[in-house]
Amino acid sequence: MTTSTIPTLDDATFDRAVAPGSGLVALEFGAEWCGACKVMAPALHDVAHELEGRVRFYSIDADVNAQTVTRFAVRSLPTVLLFRDGTLVDRIVGAQSRAVLRARLDV
Length: 107
Known about the structure:
This protein is an alpha/beta fold. The chain contains four helices and five strands, in the order βαβαβαββα. A five-stranded mixed β-sheet has the order 1-3-2-4-5, with no helix packed on it. The protein is globular and about 30 Å long. The protein starts with 7 loop residues before the first strand and ends with a helix. The relative contact order is 0.26.
């Protein structure tokens, strides 16, 4: 899902952005047609703004990036994966409130 404040990744740019030494990265898998993604978007943007400088946020369109979707077995949208230095450390599935996102992404 393309957003104005959260940069997008694709299959080709994923490994550079989420590499060893990259710190904390939150990657949201979504799609333009996904109603739950649109419902969660304001909360995700708020948390991204609040954690700016501590967590890097990206989004990826699940419809056109099948390689990354398959690699991480994303089965439901939205899904947010949290990586620490390139290693997957948490998975948040489904639309979540700002409070839940903030608590799970607390650093």
